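hey m, so remember when u said the tokens were messed up on ur end? i reran from scratch. heres the input so u can diff it against urs
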Amino acid sequence: MDDDGRFAHTNDLPADRQMPAQMVGKSILEKHGKSDANEAVLHELRVRKALVHQENYHHSYPHCWRSKTPVIFRAMDQWFIKIDHVAGPANAPHTAGAAPTFRERAITEIDRVKWIPEWGVNRIRGAVESRPDWCISRQRSWGVPLPAFYDTQGEPILDARVVRNVADLVEQYGSNVWFEKSGDELWKLVRPRDWTGAEASGRSNDTLDVWIDSGSSSRAVIARRQEIRGGSTPSLDPTRSPQHPFQADMYLEGSDQHRGWFQSSLLLSLAGNGAAPFRTVLTHGFMVDADREKISKSKQGQGGYEKPQTAEAYVRKWGADVVRLWVSSQDFRNDIVVSEERIQKVGETYRGIRNALRYQLSNLYDFDPATQAVTDDQLTGLDRWVLSEFSQLERDVAAAYTNCEFHVGYQRLSQFIAVELSSVYHDVIKDRMYTDPAGSLRRRSTQTTLHRLVTGLCQMLSPVLAFTADEAWEFIPGKAASSVHLSEWEPAAFNLKPEEAVEWQHLFRLRERALPELEKARQSKHIGKALEARVSFAGPASELRTHHQCGQGRRRQMRALLALGDRCGRERHASDPVRTLRGSSFLRSPGHFFRHVQFPRRPHRVHPGKRAAGGEVHSPAPALRVDPADRRRPGLR
């Protein structure tokens, strides 16, 4: 069969041993339900009385899964790349101790690449070990032409000089020049001046396998662009190859590309450059719908989904940062389920992150880190604790980013913001931020801490929440760069002394014992909020003892952790005749201020029968409480 789908004689057999001459030129393609080639064959069988039975029937014909058009199979001469050859004389036998074959070199190079997840190395190793020779020619009406010519005997002319001349011609006019000009015109343009071989009488109509196109992307993208080329640097790991200028830091694609792009890129770069085009390869799962069926491109425009399964549709509804945060929250090593319910849940986490940034920024409106920041030894115990926790968070997130485990970084970040920040630290520091004098050491200590926290959080979130982090960065006082993306994130080390760390662990254990008792009192209607109660602990001294015995500051810390007591954070004493809420008279924004209020102290009423193993819950009589005005800074809402 020729390129037009018609019967044709071949050159490897005498004409009398092939089909009758009257059958040559008959098309195999159907017209009105019949094929001229089929009818010619049936006619020849009838003439020779060799037709045993004829029956018409409909059957399923193979179709292209993407274009949905019929596929015709035929035997053709093809071009191949040998996989088990050894560089050197043609057909040189491979013996023990001889140079490795191309396949063996590829397997050796695979072991020098870092594969994420680790099982990826086994998949591509198995694909390379079991693959046959690579068929690189295709019979299509589109694509990159295979630059071969044929002489009068039908033998191919594939000379390196001719191929380079064809490449120069394509670079100047585009790949269509191969099809726009005749074979004679092309040969005149690419024929070497000192050519002594056979003259071309025709050109190849084959096109290159598309994996040649994508597999050579390392040469087209990196090797030919000076602005992104790397330098030749040795590797610290002896099992890995040194970094070459043409190598990319990472290739990223789906798990089906170990037989596709990853492998074609490896083989072509190994043949042309002597090394793999990548240092790291990351493999991710497929996007699947709620029924865990793969979201196929071929279904997008054919009503295959009730709602458009495209990134643009979700970005328009949720915003780019929420979609980016959802992507980072997924374990890419497995298939990822795409649904609005899952994105909406991540959207709630996003609001928590944004609110945490707003809270921190709103309390830095009168803070200048250049003149008002305090040193580490002047920080309060609570500030030192949260900075120690934040330092560990930075180390964990940096390690997660380095290992491409973004879902691990998301989990650590969301947990830290929801628990250590929102539930503990942000709630406790309200007293000192809203009632302490503006320039007091304790308030400046907390502002110093908030400044460190919001700066580190913006830098830590910037790879994922690119817009939100940059928006929040604009309101940070004393920032070093105009954009968070122009700053350099250096996780800061802040470690508590061993005895201080042990003490905070002990305080939080006491807090865990008290919270259930408060919840019981709340359910029994003895109190409404934890602010209306005071907890007394009873038990062996060894369980209640802290490192700094009976210090007033430690008692205040414990009460703050329980979210109990005065809004001003002052320690209550039986001799105090009045309870005072002292304001600092500073303005946070026009029209907002704190007031100085005094009101009589009322005695606490002890409720009998509420004693429990963890402690004793007391409930005071209702008392006047003044809440600060809303002081959120305009701009980040």
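this time it looks ok to me. Confidence is low (pLDDT under 50) at residues 89-94, 547-552, 563-637. if urs says something different then somethings off w ur setup not the seq
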